[in-house]
Structures are given as C-alpha cells and as structure tokens.
Design brief:
six-stranded antiparallel beta sheet, about 45% helix
Length: about 300
C-alpha cells in the first residue's frame, strides 16, 4: 500500500497542470521552469520526509532486506503502482511542456522524477521492519513508466492510458467483526477509503479508438474502450482470516468469498477534443479518472454480470 502517497503526489501534479492550462510556452520559459522546479523538488523532498515520520516511525529500522508480497491483495496494489507511475510521468510531462521544455527532455525528466520517487519509497520500505523492498513493486513501477515513455516517444501522444475509479465497497458499513476489520484496514471515511480500500478501486486500461484506428473523421475523438481490473471481499492481504484485536490468541475468519473482477466498458478521453476556455481544466481530470459507463463484469467465482452504470 506504499503507492498511497504516490497517488496523492500524482493528484497534486494533475491539479497544477490543470490550473495552468491555457498558455503553454512555445519556447523555454525560465520563470516557469524555476516555478515547476521549486514545486516539484519541494514536494518531492517534503513528501518523502513526511512519509518517514508518518508511515515508518511506528516500525523499527533495520538492515536492508527484500519482501515478496506478490500474493497480497490479489495484486491490486501492483496495478496501482503501475497506474501511479504512468499517471505521474504523463502529467509531469505536460507540466514540463507547459514550461516550454523540449519534448524529449520533458519525457525523460518526467519519467526520471516519477520513477526515482517511487524507487526512493521502495528503498525506505527495504529498511523498515514492517515491509521490505518489493521487486514486484519495482517491476510494476517500470511497466507504468514504460507505457508512458514508449507512447510519447513512438506516437507523441498517449493513446492508451492507465486510469483509476472508485466506488465505496460497503465493507466498512458491515456489522460485527467484518465491519470492524474493514474500518481498521481501510479507514473510517471516504477520505481514507479511496486510497486504501482495494475492494472499491478499479484500475483501467483505457484505449482511444480514434487515435488507434487511423484518426478517421467517422470515429468520435473522445470515445475510448476500457478494460478494468478490480477485486471484491478482500479483508486481508492473503486471506480473510485475522487476529481478534480484543483477544490476540483468537482468530476470526470471514465467510466472504474473495474474487477477482474483469470489466469491459466505455470511457471518455478529452485530449483531442476542443473545449471552451473555461472547461479546459477537465482534460487532466478525465486523463486520470475513468468516466462512469455501463459495464460487463466477469468475476473469478464464475459470475457474469452487467452494470447499468459502473464507476
């Protein structure tokens, strides 16, 4: 769950890009370069320092070690790492271009800053007794960054995006031991759950039909097809069995059946769409968040379901 702070940083960068939407520099703008350098560098340092005190202070620091967490959370955290790495790189690139930085330099600086930030978090994990350095986290960070870089170098645009959506899972509202467990792990309110509750999160591979099929005038520029991945009924990392907080010698097991979910839906992409000046701020938001649409779901328990609206 180390990608939580990374997602918060991502939304800061996205907001920054959205606030300065209307006048991208045609050439290098020193004032803008200084501004984004201070903002990015300051947030980079402050957030890592804050993470050290807020996240790791409750755990002992020891020798550097590795940790195999592949079986945890049905790999939802791994897909989250890839999505965070992709989105951070893509939005940092737009911020760099807003400052008039050369395209190729913007790509590598954005990718380098995004990747190094997540690598720094993994190294901090490696010295914490609570976790360890995860090679799988590093792999998915690489996948997300690679998806951004390869498209920007090859197409000079992002035709395939990794996106995020969230809807409350309802587990934290359950009664008894299950509800207490969910609130303890995922948080009491939505301000925590959208970051922590993997049951409510869905990660999407959203593909722009217009740009991938030759950019025909007969295809809407805004229309995407999206494939999603999610999970349900997860009350623990690897199983739904946990220690009773009121009785450390007793264990509790939930009867909820853990399941993976694959989804097929439509989506909206505004990067090629002309919008009124006052609505341009919508572009970076739609570049990160999957828009609600009807969806077809298949889950690992053999179920095939349709959703009139899925978010």
């Amino acid at each position: 769950m180390r990608c939580i702070l990374c997602i918060s940083v991502l939304f800061f960068f996205t907001a920054l890009q959205g606030q300065n939407w209307h006048e991208s520099a045609d050439s290098l703008n020193p004032k803008r370069v200084i501004a984004i350098g201070i903002a990015e560098g300051g947030l980079y340092a402050v957030s890592l320092t804050g993470l050290q005190f807020a996240w790791y202070s409750d755990y002992q620091t020891g020798g550097f070690h590795f940790f195999n967490d592949w079986d945890g959370w049905y790999q939802m955290d791994k897909v989250g790492h890839a999505t965070t790495a992709y989105q951070a790189g893509a939005n940092l690139y737009l911020i760099n271009r807003w400052a008039g930085i050369d395209k190729r330099k913007s790509i590598w600086w954005a990718a380098g800053l995004s990747y190094s930030y997540q690598l720094a978090v993994e190294v901090m994990d490696g010295f914490s007794s609570g976790w360890g350095f995860s090679n799988y986290d590093l792999l998915f960070n690489t996948v997300g960054t690679g998806l951004f870089v390869s498209q920007q170098l090859g197409w000079d645009e992002q035709r395939i995006r990794l996106k995020y959506s969230f809807w409350p899972s309802g587990l934290t509202s359950a009664g008894g031991a299950e509800g207490r467990r969910a609130r303890n792990v995922f948080g009491e309110g939505l301000y925590e759950q959208w970051l922590k509750d993997y049951n409510g999160q869905t990660y999407w591979l959203s593909c722009n039909i217009w740009s991938l099929t030759g950019k025909s005038d007969r295809v809407p520029k805004w229309l995407n097809v999206a494939v999603g991945y999610s999970a349900n009924n997860l009350l623990g990392s690897e199983s739904n069995t946990w220690t009773d907080p009121d009785d450390p010698l007793a264990t509790i097991t939930s009867n909820r059946i853990r399941e993976r979910q694959l989804l097929l839906s439509l989506d909206i992409d505004l990067q090629h769409t002309k919008l009124p000046k006052g609505l341009i701020w919508l572009k970076p938001i739609f570049g990160v968040v999957k828009f609600p649409f009807p969806a077809l779901e298949w889950n690992s328990n053999g179920g095939l379901n349709g959703h009139l609206l899925y978010f």
